[in-house]
Design brief:
Oligomer: heterodimer
Low-confidence stretches of chain A: none
Number of strands of chain B: 0
Number of helices of chain B: 10
Distance between the termini of chain A: 41 Å
Structural class of chain B: mainly alpha
Largest sheet of chain A: none
Shape of chain A: globular
Order of helices and strands of chain A: HHHHHHHHH
Structural class of chain A: mainly alpha
Mean pLDDT of chain A: 95
Largest sheet of chain B: none
Order of helices and strands of chain B: HHHHHHHHHH
Helix content of chain A: over 70%
Number of strands of chain A: 0
Helix content of chain B: over 70%
Strand content of chain B: under 5%
Mean pLDDT of chain B: 96
Shape of chain B: elongated
Distance between the termini of chain B: 67 Å
């Protein structure tokens, strides 16, 4: 039952990325919170989601560009981390999330090509202004993304559950080192995104001010 | 549901049929259908309008409704087909750039930064509240866009300028830059491994410096994802070699 709910959640996150709503349901932090709640370890979901969110903040999902799909990937990462000592598994879970996110991202252009085949098949009717054809093509393509999201979700949840079921934990020294590397990678990613978007114009001053206030606040509070 | 409501609902699944050939074309065509229903009395005119509505078009998904509304109004007003096509072509680039700057590089990072802080301080309730609030914003912007475009028709550019939405881009961008930069140190502190905090701070500092330099130099650097996985592979090899 839990795995089914996680699969549905992963599917919904996959749909939100491009096809349906596009309203934060595919963001790693949000997906992690939901997956953590479903898996019975909200804190693990939030921590994994927060770290993957740092990677996602460097991604701008512009139509024709290629970008990762972190939705189902975050569900798998949360499954790997849930119920375990988070400092030891955070790195492994993040690595799994990154790899699955990049792999899931490859399915997006494939779905678009599949949709293009359908559009091509109905090309004459679309050019002739056939409203029924417009509706049919649109819903058929939505169906492709439902299928893509469901498949990616099933694979991600399956892999996550498999790793979790083995009960495997990295040795503490290794797990801690990987978690530290993941944290450094997240910092790299978000710094890259923040600076790249602030390179020209006054935004860099606000980035610098935010960094100063953040460092001070995180040190003092 | 009113025609406008149906258009808004359809715009929420606008990008389902995104392709490299027509981009959002079929999606905008599907969203336009309820507004073009009034032309059904003249099947030839209706068909021509529907055909035009499915042609190549791409804008930010939140703001595409402005073009959908404006083009539908122009069709209902009997403007020539070439005028409608030019209107959509003229709107696509600006609506794409405006939306990307305003939402993808502004509002979304700003909201996610607030949610990161909220998750640390409050917990999952902050995430739930943030998602619900953002969904309402998404709905409102979509509704507002269709209404603006449909009311203005071919004068939509002037109406958009009067709305002052373009002026918000700069302000939102500054807020996003500040909030994201503010949230990251808190996230890093929250994720520091107990007992290895100093090495975590050092690693995160090196990472942040690397990302900053990579963004500043105009040399193509692998993404943080690739660098992270490669570094993890090195750590694994090191661990196996010493154990």
């Amino acid at each position: 039952m839990t795995l089914t709910m996680l699969w549905l959640w992963a599917t919904l996150a996959g749909l939100d990325l491009v096809s349906v709503l596009q309203a934060l349901l595919s963001r790693p932090l949000v997906v992690g919170a939901g997956a953590g709640a479903l898996a019975g370890d909200v804190e693990a979901g939030l921590r994994v989601g927060a770290l993957l969110e740092l990677f996602a903040l460097d991604v701008v999902p512009v139509g024709s560009s290629r970008y990762p799909d972190f939705g189902a990937a975050t569900v798998a990462a949360t499954l790997i981390a849930a119920g375990r000592d988070w400092p030891v598994v955070l790195g492994i879970a993040t690595a799994a999330g990154i790899i699955l996110g990049m792999a899931a991202g490859v399915t997006l252009p494939l779905t678009r090509r599949l949709c293009a085949v359908t559009v091509q098949r109905f090309s004459d009717r679309l050019s002739g202004g056939d409203a029924a054809a417009v509706t049919r093509v649109h819903w058929t393509c939505l169906g492709y993304d439902v299928g893509r999201s469901a498949l990616v979700g099933a694979i991600a949840v399956g892999l996550g559950a498999l790793v979790a079921a083995t009960g495997w934990l990295p040795p503490v020294v290794l797990g801690t080192a990987l978690s530290t590397v993941a944290l450094a990678g997240g910092a790299w990613s978000v710094a890259h995104g923040a600076v790249a978007s602030a390179r020209s114009g006054p935004r860099w001053r606000w980035v610098a001010a935010g960094t100063a206030v953040g460092v001070l606040g995180a040190t003092v509070l | 549901m009113t025609s406008l409501g149906r258009v808004v609902a359809r715009l929420l699944i606008l990008q389902s049929s995104w392709t490299y050939e027509r981009m959002q074309g079929v999606g905008t065509g599907y969203a336009s259908l309820p507004l073009l229903d009034d032309l059904r009395a003249d099947p030839e005119r209706h068909a021509a309008a529907v055909a035009r509505s499915t042609e190549l078009f791409n804008a930010h998904p939140y703001l595409a409704g402005i073009a959908v509304g404006a083009a539908a109004r122009a069709e209902l007003a009997g403007k020539p087909g070439t005028t409608v096509q030019r209107l959509k072509t003229a709107l696509a680039g600006p609506l794409g750039a405006l939306g990307d700057q305003l939402f993808w590089i502004g509002v979304v990072p700003a909201v996610m930064a607030i949610l990161l802080l909220g998750a640390i301080v409050v917990g999952p309730a902050a995430v739930i509240a943030g998602v619900m609030g953002y969904a309402l914003l998404r709905l409102y912007v979509t509704y507002w866009g269709v209404q603006l475009g449909f009311d203005a028709g071919v004068d939509v550019a002037a109406a958009l300028k009067r709305s002052r939405l373009p002026e918000r881009v700069g302000q939102v961008g500054l807020a996003a830059g500040f909030l994201v930069a503010l949230s990251v140190p808190f996230v890093i502190r929250w994720l520091l491994v107990p007992g290895a905090a100093s090495s975590g701070i050092a690693a995160a500092s090196v990472g942040a410096a690397g990302g900053t330099v990579a963004a500043l130099v105009r040399v193509r650097v692998p993404s943080a994802r690739i660098i992270t996985l490669a570094t993890m592979a090195v750590v694994l090899l090191w661990y196996w070699s010493v154990s």
